[in-house]
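P.,

For your records, the input lines for the assembly:
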Amino acid sequence: MKSNFKISYPGSEKVYVQGTIHPEIKVGMRKVNQMPTVSIKNGERIEMPNPSIYIYDTSGPYSDDHATIDIEKGLPHLREPWIRQRAENDKENVCQMYYAKQGIITPEMEYVSIRENMNCKELGIETHITPEFVCKEVAEGRAVIPANINHPESEPMIIGRNFLTKINTNIGNSATSSSIEEEVEKAIWSSKWGGDTLMDLSTGPNIHETREWILRNSPVPVGTVPIYQAMEKVNGKAEDLNWEIFRDILIEQCEQGVDYFTIHCGIRLKNIMLAANRLTGIVSRGGSIISRWCQIHQKESFLYEHFDDICDIVARYDVALSLGDGLRPGSIHDANDEAQFAELDTMGGLVEKAWAKNVQVFIEGPGHVPMHKIKENMERQIEKCHNAPFYTLGPLVTDIAPGYDHITSAIGAAQIGWLGTAMLCYVTPKEHLALPDKEDVRNGVIAFKLAAHAADLAKQHPGAIVRDNALSKARYEFRWKDQFNLSLDPEKALEYYKTSNNVGGKYCTMCGPNFCAMKISHTLCDE
Amino acid sequence: MKSNFKISYPGSEKVYVQGTIHPEIKVGMRKVNQMPTVSIKNGERIEMPNPSIYIYDTSGPYSDDHATIDIEKGLPHLREPWIRQRAENDKENVCQMYYAKQGIITPEMEYVSIRENMNCKELGIETHITPEFVCKEVAEGRAVIPANINHPESEPMIIGRNFLTKINTNIGNSATSSSIEEEVEKAIWSSKWGGDTLMDLSTGPNIHETREWILRNSPVPVGTVPIYQAMEKVNGKAEDLNWEIFRDILIEQCEQGVDYFTIHCGIRLKNIMLAANRLTGIVSRGGSIISRWCQIHQKESFLYEHFDDICDIVARYDVALSLGDGLRPGSIHDANDEAQFAELDTMGGLVEKAWAKNVQVFIEGPGHVPMHKIKENMERQIEKCHNAPFYTLGPLVTDIAPGYDHITSAIGAAQIGWLGTAMLCYVTPKEHLALPDKEDVRNGVIAFKLAAHAADLAKQHPGAIVRDNALSKARYEFRWKDQFNLSLDPEKALEYYKTSNNVGGKYCTMCGPNFCAMKISHTLCDE
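Structure tokens returned:
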């Protein structure tokens, strides 16, 4: 496997911020250094410095010039000493929620508090996100830090509606496509553009091996849908699935280091037929498999029946649960229907069971939802699921744009993020059509990063506006490089800019030299 | 100039619906014919027909197999007999608003009422959009039909919040780029993808000639910003502008057939300095030019002072006015500030003056606005501008994504469209960076078509959901071709689909044959 996986961001350096409670922690950040603002007054050149801007950095050691990257060996074990220390002090429990309930601030909690407050200290911005606040949010289940003790390579991050809105990237091969190398490349690529977590949805051959490569080289938490691997074990025959097969795979993946599992345990036998009159039936892969199992055996699924056992297993590794919405609507027509909300109610009951065992849990949401029905989704989820974080796919606000569903879903994602969804599952332009390639992953990640950031601005997250203000100031002052360096995709911005005939010019590339509004506007201020 | 400008849509035919009040009118529509739903019951093949779906069609004669297209000669004069008839009956006035106030339903009004009710008659959907309703909306200024008597080539369309949400495409060259041929190609290209109106924002050489080619070949209303041509006349020196120069250009463009003018007449001398403390000053080209003029001459602009004269001129041609928001915010930081809202208040007063002269008018809006500040924009506009239609640029919900601003703006556009904005001005991926090429125009138009449609779904426009339902049913039944034919961009959907290894397969291309949720879901319903 090739090894040139280094990531670099133009005009940026990798810096680390040390912990206070836990001085051994070092939180990696991207620091963008800006050019000064230059003006001429009375024939004299005056330079006013512009502050460096810190950017939340998901790229891990890949963007550290001093780090040695070796895909064969995997990333360094950042969290290992913290995990070992806890094991020595307290042999009973490894769960973040267990410590949080006792008011103990783990290194992971302090880490995320530093990470969430980008630019606040430097610019004197007030923030509510202290380590104590993180601890309380985790204790009360409003936020989740997915952190399997067997994935010490991952950098702690938090999912909760009082924190920065996160995005998840789906990768993974199917029976008909792509190699392990391609998937590892996509995983690192996703981290480069800002993916906060990564789901490996492989269904093809070599599931275990693909996942191993991804886990050992992923600086972000990794999720899976274990039922996919279980299906491989029974040669695709849903009816042959059973608890024992599923349990063994769960343990296998916990041992490997998966940080969170999507499990469709909210499907009840009695609710399946609620989807019978739908336009698009059941569009969740896991949901359709479990529904079929229930129907053939005419009983409750082994996932629902064994939910306590599932919690007991994952609690030994501090793997978080993502309760999969097997009955999510797959079309505008089916949004907010009885089937969907019946499953949500079931999940609410399961949340309390998980918390009783210190298992961190969040809830997956739709799907396809028109804008006027989005709010009801969020409000019901908060109410029925007792404030557990919401993690939505989109939602897509119309069905009519295959090829552009990263946009239909970014529209819904920005809205539901503003209303309180903690993590947005990205959608690529190939949704409904084919598996994404690297360029699709990039387009999906950026569309969702901007939607998440728009949500953070609307929620007035401390310091979120700093980056917008810095970029806009650079734009107004024709500091083109600073503008690009501060943008979500500096490479794309530069590429487009170069198509104009104005590289380095003191006027807008759209307006031309004689019609530039910003140029004229400067003359207004000078006079 | 080359002439192979024919437009074809796969699986579609061009049909015409005749008027009732005015039997001479024929409204062009795109009719998508679907395959039947096939199932096997007891070994027998059963075919259930699926209805044809009508799609709002902005492509004019270009998509009519029987039409002869000759760019040199221009399009046929669809509206000429109606205009002639009115001239014979009533020598006094040519304005749609004049007739509307008297309760007279013009052919243009019946035309748009037929156009807005796509699929309603065929599928028995109730609709409030009758010719009488159109007439009332125009009379009361809530809706505008831009239709210069000298642009008889254009097909009537309506802009108002009780109608389908429209989108505008900006094209036009600047001093540094592109030829007339390229711009005409972009104009037709925009019509193909669904652009409802077209603004020619050329600032370079050959403004008049470029516009002539565009007008003679555009089946949709064309707008301009006349101050750009005025600036060419004074060699780019804003201070040399005056009423006489502007008036002559206005008349020239009225004579040529421009359907609406963006005029920045809401800028008052006393309000300019409100923008002084902004992060990004004045970002509207017209706004910056007029502000500079006011500041140099220390008086109210000739546009504000001569607003009545402007109305008198445009009323002779039934050109609509788009009151330009010269002080729109150019960054998240500057959204909803005093400068912006002071201009909106001014425009409210001008609306009433225009209506008194039967001039149709709409109001331009921002710009860059974070999501939580969008609603205030819409509510203030409705209140201060007496229900005149709102026409917004985006808004962009974050500043940090140059290269992806078609998405940041589609997010804001969908929201403000749902809240009541009547027309959305598209933004392309090159916004802030360079002028768009053809592919950028396509990406911008589709992003805004989907945002507008999402708004129509949320507003529950009669029949808007028909297309989503039909496409989703086709998707669920693996009628891939029908799915693509019904989509906003059939070519792109097909192109992406072909990258999968499953052309024609009865399973999702993302899931592969053994994991397809929809395939499994079908087995649930069959049992």
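Two observations worth noting. The longest strand of chain A covers residues 12-18. Chain A has a mean pLDDT of 94.

Regards
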